[in-house]
Design goal:
Length: 239
């Protein structure tokens, strides 16, 4: 699924510290009625390997959902999480969104879906970030300079950015590599060249900050970014 600028919502998300976020989004989101709680689920995506099925059933019955999702390869956790989502309490939902996001290797092709999950009309949204990440975000300046590694002009319009140029360069190379093409089933166009986009945004528009894996990841709606014209190519990366 290709995401272009026109497909992304023009919205001003509420500050991440608020308990409920995203009610003003123009993206289609599930109503509170659709998020009613159900007993522990039996998702269709339970691993088919007989050696894992019993373990998966036990984890679901005990609501050990993070352990259950760990049975899936990283690029298969999002579908498994979607099976679980209607049955999750708010206390379970937000930490699992963080966990699945941080373990996913291919976020951009599912940008619209991720935006909906991040803006779900649920309480307790502060649980999306761990306390130390909330404090780190609070200490950041009101305007942020961000970078994003990609391999095309279209790839600039993603949710995941970083204030660290070295991290963006790493992902620029990754976006052109065989691992990403494999995870997307060979559906990508021929690899472009690695490039880094530069943008600024207001801190109030940040959806989340994740320090895990030392990537200093800023999650932000691309519609809220002021993207600098042009990109930084490899020739400019050398010290």
């Amino acid at each position: 699924m290709k995401i272009c600028q026109e497909q992304l919502p023009q919205c001003n998300p509420q500050p991440v510290a608020q308990a409920n976020c995203g009610s003003g989004s123009t993206y289609p989101t599930k109503s509170p009625q659709q998020l009613d709680l159900f007993p522990a689920p039996r998702p269709a995506s339970i691993p088919v390997d007989p050696a894992l099925r019993g373990v998966a059933e036990e984890m679901l019955a005990e609501r050990k959902f993070d352990c259950y999702l760990g049975l899936f390869d990283s690029h298969r956790r999002l579908p498994a999480f979607l099976d679980l989502a209607p049955a999750l309490t708010n206390e379970e939902y937000w930490p699992l969104v963080r966990s699945v996001w941080m373990s996913s290797e291919t976020l951009y092709p599912h940008a619209e879906l991720w935006f909906e999950l991040l803006q779900a009309p649920r309480g307790g949204r502060e649980r999306l970030m761990i306390p130390s990440d909330r404090r780190a975000l609070a200490r950041m300046p009101e305007e942020l300079r961000l970078y994003r590694g990609c391999n095309s002009e279209e790839g600039i319009r993603g949710l995941s950015w970083t204030p660290d140029l070295a991290t963006a360069i790493k992902f620029a190379h990754y976006s052109c590599g065989p691992r990403r093409r494999f995870l997307l089933g060979g559906l990508l166009p021929p690899p472009g060249r690695p490039r880094v986009a530069v943008a600024t945004c207001a801190k109030v528009d940040v959806l989340a900050y994740f320090s895990g894996r030392r990537e200093h990841e800023i999650v932000v709606n691309p519609a809220a970014l002021t993207i600098n014209p042009g990109t930084i190519g490899p020739a400019a990366w050398a010290p």
